[in-house]
Amino acid sequence: NTPTPEEALDRAAMRDWVWHSIEQLSEPDRLVTLLRYFSDASSYEQIAAVCGVPVGTVRSRLSHARRALAGGLRTAATTAHADVATSNDTRWREGSDMLTTAMGGDFERVVRESWWPNAEMIVPGGPRGGRDLAISGMDRDLAAGVRQRLRNVVASGDVLIWETDLISPPDDPEHCPPAALWLQVLREGRVRQLTLFHPVPALV
């Protein structure tokens, strides 16, 4: 059913209150919260792999985040804050534009313009390096015929998550996993750390 104007206003207000409260969390608590509730890498084990911490630490951080959010929501209800939908729309457009540029073979320009020179790239269970690792990995994928399509964007403060569909070449349909999660930690709007993770599809 189509919500009434009053219901739509209430939903928008609640959405903004929730996101404002999430932005007040510490970076470690915000990371696990975004992954748990707004991404496909939502199991404790996958969150632990993305964040590079034990499962027990994930549980502890989520518990702490829930307590902080309970108090934060009460405060946020009486605090003016930016419209979340507008912010997320902007992040979506930026992500879409960057991936389009990357798929066109110019990922190096994207990295040079939007990453810090000393930015770090982490692949859980795999290599660790800097901007050159990200560029060479994308170049290899493009040369193999792999393409990516943006499916979801989650942003809160200095944490930005892209979820993408990976499209293998027709002659090698099992070339790559079906999806990727880009967990980007920002500083002054530029990437200072990227963790690239391939979520395990949920069993149906």
Automatic annotation (TrEMBL):
Stored Pfam families: Sigma70_r4_2
Domain RNA polymerase sigma factor 70 region 4 type: 16-69
Keywords assigned: Sigma factor, Transcription, Transcription regulation
GO molecular function: DNA binding; sigma factor activity
Lineage: superkingdom: Bacteria
InterPro entries (UniProt xref): RNA_pol_sigma70_r4_t2 (IPR013249), RNA_pol_sigma_r3/r4-like (IPR013324), WH-like_DNA-bd_sf (IPR036388)
GO BP: DNA-templated transcription initiation
Gene3D superfamilies: Winged helix-like DNA-binding domain superfamily/Winged helix DNA-binding domain
Statement: the UniProt record of this protein carries the keyword Transcription regulation: yes
UniProt record similarity statement: Belongs to the sigma-70 factor family. ECF subfamily.
Name of the protein described by the UniProt record: Sigma-70 family RNA polymerase sigma factor
Species of origin: Micromonospora ureilytica
